[in-house]
Amino acid sequence: MKGYEVISSLQDHIGENDLIVSSNGNISREVYHYLAKPQVYLRGSMGLPIGVGLGLAVMNPEKRVTVITGDGNLLMGFGSVITAAYYKPHNLKILILDNSQYFTTGGQQTVSSAINFSKFLESLNIDYFQSLKASQSILDDNLENFLTTQGLNILHLIIEEGKRELANIPWHPIKIAENFLQRFD
Amino acid sequence: MINLDEFVSFIEDNFDLVSGVPCSYFKEFLSYIPSQEDKSPIKHLSATREDEAIAIAIGAALSKKRALVYMQNSGLGNIGDALTSLVQLYKLPILILVSYRGLKEDNDFPEHSIMGKINNSFLGSLNLLYWDLNEKDWEVSMQKAITVMDEQSSPVVLMVKKGVLSQ
Ligand SMILES: Cc1ncc(C[n+]2csc(CCOP(=O)(O)OP(=O)(O)O)c2C)c(N)n1
Fold it and tell me: Of B20, B37, B77, B89, most Cβ neighbours within 10 A?
């Protein structure tokens, strides 16, 4: 299963109370195209999506914050997983889409396969974690739990490389921020 | 040194979140900042890197909350991309307190000497607005920083020399 298929499966689970932060490159583009707008589409700041989600989550305890990050982004800001696990905001959900590639820049291999995610996530003592190979039945069985279990939840999904040709995000980042900020008027 | 009771209560009145990586120049200041567990009006999150602290602050700014970041100027070297491709690109306001290491009193700390020399040109090349936080007029500096960040929706840096927020 491909990353955009996982992202489009989130459609049915995401409502007005959901804030999403997506990591740069392909993933932000897919989140923009498939999920309710506006969300925080990061265009740069590689490595920082979990930090942004953490700040949003602790400031907005009544909302659900879901970070959708590639493995390259995860690895670049790996300390943020530890920070999130330390503070354990009850409303933060981290979805790792792991194609073991920097797909956006041409599919160069990352080092993510050196991690045993089940063991690593277990060591964090968080409220929910799974490390699975993405498929429709895996999503059917796990997405709801991942999103609704109270606590800091991390779902690591192995995905296949690949994308749909999607237009670039038409909003300038200033507009992304403006539109998102309006959700707090 | 600034009266830390007054300084921290000013921060509690004007900010919602604090995050950063420590410097010994902030030692006493940070001992006054409550930890996350306390029932404080502000949240304080200790970060693993300065760019992470910036990201956490931006999460707050994206929901109309005011955030303060603290770091050593060595941390400026870690936040170039966070500033240019996040804070400035999305035009969001945060206040950054930066300790000014590498001046005369840091003669015995060669690790700070090079950044100490280029500190201002570094901030200048990032087009950052910055001025000093001083013991005498700290409240004016802080108030001005808040006005500028709110009105221009931009980051502001306050440089903190030795003895200002810790002995
Ligand atoms: C600091 C920095 N270094 C490099 C890049 C170039 N870059 C853009 S996207 C990307 C890959 C991101 O990988 P991942 O998070 O795994 O997502 P994927 O592309 O696989 O969907 C890279 C290296 C960048 N934007 N910023």
Answer: B20
- Reduced to 3 states (helix: H, G, I; strand: E, B; else coil), residue A123 is helix
Instruction: Provide the number of structural domains found in chain B.
Output: 1
Greatest alpha-carbon pair distance for chain B in Å reads: 43
Find the A167 Cα to ligand 1 centroid distance in Å: 18
User: In chain A, where are the structural domains located?
Assistant: 3-184
Instruction: Please tell me whether the peptide bond between A173 and the residue prior to it is cis, using omega within 30 degrees of 0.
Output: no
Which candidate, A178, A184, A185, A147, places its Cα nearest to that of A41? A178
Q: Which CATH number characterizes residue B93's domain?
A: 3.40.50.970
Fold for domain A3-184?
Rossmann fold (3.40.50)
Could you tell me which chain A residue has the CA closest to the CA of B93? A177
pLDDT tens digits along B18-70: 999 999 999 999 999 877 665 678 999 999 999 999 999 999 999 999 999 99
Q: Is residue A103 lining ligand 1, measured as CB closer than 6 Å?
A: yes
A44 touches chain B (CB under 8 A): yes
Q: Measure A170 CA to ligand 1 centroid, in angstroms.
A: 19
Confirm whether the ipTM is greater than 0.95: yes
Asked whether residue B166 is domain-assigned, the answer is no
